[in-house]
Amino acid sequence: MSSLSLPEAPATPLDVERIRQDFPILRETTAQGTPIVYLDNAASTQKPRQVIDAISGHYERNNANVHRGIHELSNRATDAYDHARQRVAALLGITDTAELIWTRGTTEGLNLVAYAYGMNNLRQGDEILLSVLEHHSNLVPWQLVAQRTGARLRFLEIDDQGRLDLSMLDHLLTERTKIVSLTHVSNALGTVNPIREIAAKAKAAGALMVVDGAQSAPHLPVDVPSLGADFYAFSGHKMCGPTGSGGLWGRREVLEAMPPFHGGGDMIEWVELESSTYAPIPAKFEAGTPNVAGAVGLGAAADYLAGLGRDAILAHERALVAYAVQRLGEIEDLTILGPRNLEERSGVVSFTLADIHPHDLATILDSEGVAIRAGHHCTQPLMKCLGVGSTARASFYLYNTPAEVDTLVDALHKARGLFGY
Ligand code: C6P
Questions:
Q1: Which phi and psi (to 5°) does residue 45 adopt?
Q2: For the domain that residue 185 is a member of, what is the CATH number?
Q3: Relative to the CA of 107, which ligand 1 atom is closest?
Q4: The overall pTM is greater than 0.90
Q5: Which residue, of 307, 329, 351, is where some domain finishes?
Q6: 290 lines ligand 1 (CB under 6 A)
Q7: Angstrom distances, CA of residue 274 to CA of 190, 270, 271
Q8: 106 Cβ inside 6 Å of ligand 1
Q9: 191 lines ligand 1 (CB under 6 A)
Q10: Are residues 270 and 315 located together in one domain of the fold?
């Protein structure tokens, strides 16, 4: 068995065995009684007891609509809702909490910017600079803006390790560039982009900088305002929070100058039959009854991550990825995509194994209790660039262990055998 000759497990600053006790779902097994090894964290992370309790506690003790009622429960719900915003803002280094707008996740945050800003400010001849690394959520909204306004989409390309070709910035960033919208971390390859450096160049060119933070907020100790961008979108469910929760940070001046995205209750100051004035930010962008329990759960998730320590989480993931890359490297015919320098990647390891279709690999791994994602990862243009239809992707988080990496590797050896390699 490979366990006889395993490399030494990496040192981690986290007490992972204790942390795992916080996550009830990690005790789940398959129908055959095999422990489930959850390595699909880039898609969605699991939730600790603290988050689950915060949500059920909200419904058990504080549930009512917010900002409307003058009664005990509405006041409690409003306090919890506002407190959650402060907790999430604190985690991300946001000092002006009005700059943090609740959304359903990254997709909604990026659409908010595309519609409320892009549709209203761009015109024929303007350019939007994206990259071939982008998730569909940071492509399709801009395609819609371009189709409607006549703006043109331009793209940064990547090198053979999936890193952005920053030399292209010199000729792609011009006075025509009105928006630069890039992912901080690639969900398909794990590449960490030098956002601060790019944002500085975008600003110098007079463009607005938008950051897709879906894969950075959960994993990196991000201090959002200091990235130098104008917008940063993230998803709660990828950082121990509930599905349907998330946020968009925007620079106050830009948010105040922008028209609303959705119209309805709670986002107004005064309404006449023919026109309205709007509430100050963030309410201006939060029409309708919000996802109060989602915000409360995300607030609890922010406290949980802050309690573990953002640097410690990153160090743990880095150690785990280094171990995974080393162990996966032992498997013949396995190719790891993305940056070779581990400092340039996050907790995502995308790979192909011989000519086994990634969906077949994922199915065999699933029969061994190992959950990975296989497919195009909502990055079809990137897959085309890489010359692959799809990849298999293992993605790690704060509760994963080196032993789980070993289980992944054993399952891949088994898959290889089943395919006659
Ligand atoms: N990526 C993955 O398995 P939502 O769905 O709104 O929470 O996040 C969208 C999104 C945007 N940008 C990046 C970089 C992302 O990784 C994601 C979500 C998941 O990779 C689901 S496709």
A1: -95, 165
A2: 3.40.640.10
A3: 6
A4: yes
A5: 307
A6: no
A7: 49, 11, 8
A8: yes
A9: no
A10: no
pLDDT in tens, 5-63: 667 878 999 999 999 999 999 999 999 999 999 999 999 999 999 999 999 999 999 99
Q: How confident is the model at residue 69 (pLDDT cuts 50, 70, 90)?
A: confident
- If one residue of 44, 111, 139, 235 were mutated to test the ligand 1 pocket, choosing by the most ligand atoms within 8 A of its CB, it would be 235
Q: How far is the CA of 361 from the centre of ligand 1 (A)?
A: 22
For the chain, the domain total comes to: 2
Full residue range of the structural domain in which residue 225 is found:
52-307
Cα–ligand 1 centroid distance for 214 (angstroms): 6
Q: Has 378 been annotated as catalytic?
A: yes
Q: Which residue among 168, 378, 385, 403 is the active-site one?
A: 378
- SS3 of 78, please? helix
Same domain? For 21 and 89 the reply is: no
Do 301 and 358 share a domain, yes or no? no
Are residues 280 and 164 part of one domain? yes
Q: Encoding tokens for residue 354?
A: 């011989």
- Cα separation, 65 vs 288, in Å, equals 10
Q: Cβ distance 101 to 286 under 8 Å? A: yes
